[in-house]
Amino acid sequence: MPVRIYRDKQIKLEPLRGKICGVIGFGSQGHAHALNLRDSGFEVVVGLHRGSKSRPAARAHKLAVLETSEAVRQSDIVFLALPDTKMPKIFVKQIAPYLRRGQTLLFAHGFAVVYRTVIPPRNVDVIMVAPKGLGQMVRREFKAGRGVPALLAVENDFSGQARALAFAWAKAIGCARAGVIETTFREETETDLFGEQAVLCGGTTALIRTAFETLVRAGYAPELAYFECLHELKFIVDMIHEAGIAGMRDLISDTAKWGDLTVGPKIVDKHVHKKMAMALGQIRTGKFAREFIREMRTGAKRYRALLQEGRRHPLEKTGRRLRALMDWRKK
Fold it and tell me: What are the tens digits of pLDDT across the range 209-238?
């Protein structure tokens, strides 16, 4: 059954009027939310620790910058624009002790709440507004008079106004211009993790590397393998993004279409379906989250080793050399 998509005209900003919006962190999402809220006419304070390198950037935008604890004290809505790995420690030491009854905690992703690395008190609202785009895109589209779609959820409605506040925030940062879909913290978290692992990051990078290795082992030049398996992927993804898979097929050659339709399903076959189902199962049971949290808490040695292994792959060496020749990319 299709979900309901809420648009700008259906949402009121009034629930946010008179509220002080505290943005904890000034990274990708933090800077976009803070600046879009300010430009929509709302009072914003940014919470950053005294040594944060983001302080000059926030002040350059003429935003009020406070210590994290003071920003929490002064705010009515506290947006935790922090990485999942850093959020628990900051929440325990600099946020939780300064929360008061009736405040609102806002998240851009449900991981911390779903897997209980952050446990909000029961006497605050807990909501989520998750733009479906990087912070730079959220800001760019807002300035252009457009928006990035968002997911919205309510985990705890202490005040009775949590849902209205979440919708108002989504409208204020421009997301309602494109559309807002209501979901749950768990649903957003599980689908987000699965998408990252199966397609957007894990699936795509593994497919690229495997295809590159297949051509090189068969005797083809690494440069040709790079162009065919990585470089041209952007053009296909852009077409899919603009027109969907069927629209992309309308724009490619008959040869490419036939290969897509007849060979693709042989590569991404029933075995891949089973492995995707297994990955989803590990997300839903919490196994993936437990392993990730344990890895981060025990020094992240395997995590860093895997990153370094990826950087040393011949694909990366070939890509660095070829990308350096493409001056037009810098524009």
Answer: 999 999 999 999 999 999 999 999 999 999
Q: Are 26 and 58 in contact (CB under 8 A)?
A: yes
Torsion of CA 89, 162, 284, 176, to 10 degrees: -100
Q: What is the pLDDT of residues 250-271, one digit of tens each?
A: 999 999 999 999 999 999 999 9
Between CA 71 and CA 77 the distance in angstroms is 10
Q: What is the DSSP letter of 203?
A: H
Active site residues: 109
DSSP for 221-281 reads -HHHHHIIIIITHHHHHHHHHHHHHHHHHHHS-HHHHHHHHHTHHHHS-HHHHHHHHHHHH
Pick out the chain residues at pLDDT < 50.
Answer: none
Which token pair is 156? 């705890």
**Residue 170 in 3-state DSSP?**
helix
C-alpha distances in angstroms, 201 versus 72, 182, 197? 34, 25, 6
| Burial bucket for residue 280 (CB in 10 Å: 0-12, 13-18, 19+) | middle
Q: Which amino acid makes up residue 234?
A: K
Torsion from C-alpha of 288, 240, 138, 92, nearest 10 degrees: 0
Tokens of 85: 């790995």
Coil vs helix vs strand at 38? helix
Contact (CB, 8 A) for 33 and 138: yes
Task: Show the DSSP H helices in the chain as ranges.
Answer: 28-39, 55-60, 68-74, 87-90, 111-114, 135-143, 162-172, 185-195, 202-217, 222-226, 233-251, 254-262, 264-267, 270-284, 287-297, 301-311, 314-323
- The edge-to-edge listing of strands for the beta sheet with 77-80 is 5-6, 180-182, 150-156, 125-131, 104-107, 77-80, 20-24, 43-47, 64-66
